[in-house]
User: Fold Tungstate transport system permease protein from Albimonas donghaensis.
Amino acid sequence: MDGFSGAVSAAFGLLAALDPELTGIVGLSLAVSLGATVTACALGMPLGALLAVARFPGRGLLAAMISALMGLPPVVAGLAVYLMLSASGPLGPLGLLYTPTAMVIAQTLLVLPIVAALTRETVAALHDEYDELLRSMNAGRMFALGTLLVDARFALTTAALAGFGRALAEVGAVMIVGGNIAHATRVMTTAIALETSKGELALALALGAVLVALSALIHGAVALLRNRAEGPAHA
Assistant:
């Protein structure tokens, strides 16, 4: 009990002092996860919206693949990126393996299906609701798509936050492609795993507290946005 109490006390000490190692790990975690989320949104939201309103051969198959990839195991995503970036892989000459860029790519692979699927679901529902109105206005496809995306902005922000939360809590893929290198590719989840295995609980507890706080903030933001989006409908 004394050892645990001491670890908790030391963890609060690290947080209060803004320990450089702690803040460096948190900063890299945020940078990698934000980079992956922005990339996934830039690719996934247009893809999801296109799947919601367009009709083309293979549309159903592509939508099914995206839905299936939402459950992609992180270690499989990490392995796929590792094979692409390894010395013998097609992108090996770029030298990206064991860098934050490789971690962003791996997390993007995990977040993109989530963002695309949620965007498709949201835009499809709005399209069904406004389809007759848009047809009566002779709205072109791009205008209709832009209108639907603007109207779905709160729901799409929620999708982005969900993707960010997924990226922030991921450990398997970034461990494989990042290597958990101190001061280079060590993020919160991999650092917690390492410090716990070493029996060094102070840093692990401090990072765990930060991760829980960030998760609570994300879920709070999602709830706030959901309430704001539903507010007019209940007015």
Observations:
- The mean pLDDT is 88.
